Amino acid sequence: MSDHLPASLPRAHSTDSSDALSNIDVSRALQAAAVASTTGGASSGQSSNSSSRDGDREWEREGGEGLVETPPTSLAEEGSQGGGGRRSARTRGVRSYNLKTLSDAQLPMGAGAGGRSASGWTGKTLVEDDEEAEQDAGADALSEDKEEKGGEVEPEVPAASAVGMEKRERGGSAKLQRRPSVKERVKKVASRVGSVLGKRGREVLGSGKAKKAAASPAVEEEVEDAHLPRWKKQLDTGKKGVLDELDLDAELADLPAPPPAKKARLSVKAGKSPSHEIPQPTAAPIPTAKALAAGKKMKKWQKEGLYVGQDSEMDPMAVPSGRKKLQKKSRPVSSASNATSDETTKPRASFITLPMFSYLDKTRDFTIPFDVFAPSWRKGDEKPRDWHQLNKNRLVGEAKELWEHTQNNLPPSLCVCQPPGPGEQGCDEVCLNRVMQYECNTSNCNLSSDNCSNRAFAELTQRLKRGGAYDIGVEVLKTPNRGFGVRSCRTFAPGQIIMEYTGEIITEGECQRRMREMYKDRSCYYLMELERGLIIDGTKGSMARFINHSCEPNCEVRMVKVNGTPRMGVFAGEEGVGTGEELTYDYNFDNFGTSHQICYCGAEGCRGFLSKRLNKEEMKKVAREEIERKRKAAEEAQRHARKEEEGRRKKMDRGSGWRGWIALDDPETRERLKREKKEKEEAEKLSGRALRMARRRGSPAPQKPVETEEVKGKDTPKRKRKVVQTTETMVETSAPAVLYEKPTSAGAASTLADLAPPSPKRNKLVHTRTLSSSNSKFTEQLSDSPANDSIDHPALPSLTQEPETSIHDAAAAHASAIVEDENDDDEAITLTAPAAAGQKRKRPFAAAARTLGQAVRSGLGLKGDAGSGSGSGSASAGSSGKLKQSTLSFGRKG
Ligand SMILES: C[S@@+](CC[C@H](N)C(=O)[O-])C[C@H]1O[C@@H](n2cnc3c(N)ncnc32)[C@H](O)[C@@H]1O
């Protein structure tokens, strides 16, 4: 953008830090020169200001005769002026009313070729096509007026009389109608404006009328009217014409307050305030568009221009007297801005240039780019992602007690300032409250709020209550090399409060913990000391957390106690803050950790690091650290890239996964798929254990695994078995009975055979499996018995014939009903045995084992109480009923 600037003019300083954002700050001298060299441009500049009210006043002053200043228009619009052979508005010197243009834009466009242009240049702005005939007649009347006035060019000569004449000639019988007077037309438009306004707008209109009626005596009007041209006298709706009826001065505050947000309503309803919220009677969250939307929808009016309050040299509008009110609004603190007027302009960091200045030396029509009106976040701009906005401080953990302690121990303060003289501000640097970092209020200051300049947070609250973008005045934008930053979209006078730094209030201990654990991998911290022992963690916090550091900042951060509550405010520095500037303050921090961050503030006197000034040695050390850090980062990046590449390659090499489309109608493919499927099924069937069993038995692999529990154990590897000191031993004999042993002793995996009393049939043990519960998977130990000569169970048929509980039943029950509860840490295994036919019931392991033991003993004639067969068995259970240890061994009969 600086390319547009004349070579002789000083160029704006562009800092390194914001080059990518067209960081050009047009110097004040340049602006002044540009303003001086451009007359129309200056007024365009003014009208570019979004305040149409300003434009109106300007119009009155400069137009003299009530002519309206031409708003900036595009070349495209000029085309719309050509119709009807009329002279262009520019050559005629006719100026159209800025706000009229706006109101026109809201009206429905006229149909036909002669329809209005949006800008109102055609002169038909206020007249509908169907009224054309009337206008023609009226135009004649007006041209007569003109003649009477000795050829004075009249404004608003909308319809060419020539056209009217032509029509009359053509139509012959065309009825001569009186053209509506300007007054009538204006009234009509006013009524339309009223109709297009929303309810709230109409209220504003109404209140304006009422005010006007009260404020302006008729006599005064008459005197003034005497000097007005005739057409203007007809505008009896007000000094400034119809639009004067709109109460542009009406404060938004006059409007009924929107209903509280839902959350607030609920908490009020419940009669409680949110816990842990610090009572801040004067605080208000920064109203966002959302917050506003929570209330009733209302039209937003931009009441002030972007450059209001800017230093006069900086301000192309040169602050005419009519703007005093606006000026006053944004200069509440002091007249210090004047003091800086002679100083040479210092380069400031800003995000974008203000394009209007580059256009000022061009003598052509132009349209003010949208972002001059609203230089704000646009679609496509990056937004901060992990930002939880918190516009009120929130106490966390122990900070609450500390906070209360702090509050209760604040010494009282009372200022004794005298009311200020004319042009002075009360409660200035010598104010006792100010010195004590207390904000004045009605209880500690005798001055009225108008006279007291030490009520920053109260002012902020008021401003934010209005809730417009201008009132908030700041926005978050991405910088090229420092992450996000905050930019002002209005001006702030020296010392004026801009925003509050809020977040979670934590203790130092908590801060250290967060640094160690939560933020250890971060390069950005949002921690700021509030009071001794209390820290604001802005990670969840207000927009202020995005303010970057500069070694030559334009803001400062100060703690102020407001009604006994310490709060952190961001204030404009000694030179104030201009529109479009990036907000910065001097972090001046002792580094957390050892590394020093390099500073990219771009200021002339940059210290090089985001820390206090370092001595030579420290600088060297930091430089070394920085080199080391960069080297490590590069290495890490390389490693990461290699890893990713490897992963990618592996993925491609892997046989499984997507292998592309196949043609199913290809018989060869179909055959192959069938074969693969079959193989897979077989492989599943002949799982490892089944195969081994089959091998040992010398029989074909079983169709279905006999031992359900085994299948379970194998197929559910994810089961958690947390009983570390438990070893379960499964013993198989030639009978397909399975028993578990669950010794309580921290035992090595002893088999059932080891634990069982010596038995002559001991050698019948054919297979022992140890299930280790300390692992999440079952492990299996297979030991071949020396006498592993038989797998079939001659006893089995007799068992199955047992009328009572047969071993077959028990085995089946056992096999089918191991229920493992994943969540049960203590007892991972229970056995379920059928208590009655067709009914399954969960039983503790011991009971099932006992049942099984009995069955075995009775069925096989085992040794023991019921023993009539060969074999041995024993089971013992703890007093809890759960099996502590069970040992059984079986042998073949005879
Ligand atoms: C409180 S944050 C400021 C907001 C931050 N830029 C973001 O995107 O969230 C502080 C961090 O911003 C970066 N930063 C701020 N000012 C900087 C500067 N002048 N030069 C380099 N980095 C800066 C540093 O990484 C610093 O740790």
Automatic annotation (TrEMBL):
Bias (Basic residues) ranges: 176-190, 322-331
Entry annotated with the keyword S-adenosyl-L-methionine: yes
Major localisation: nucleus
Name listed for the protein in its UniProt record: SET domain-containing protein
Keyword annotations from UniProtKB, A to Z: Chromosome, Methyltransferase, Nucleus, S-adenosyl-L-methionine, Transferase
BP GO annotations: methylation
Start-end of Gly residues biased regions: 861-872
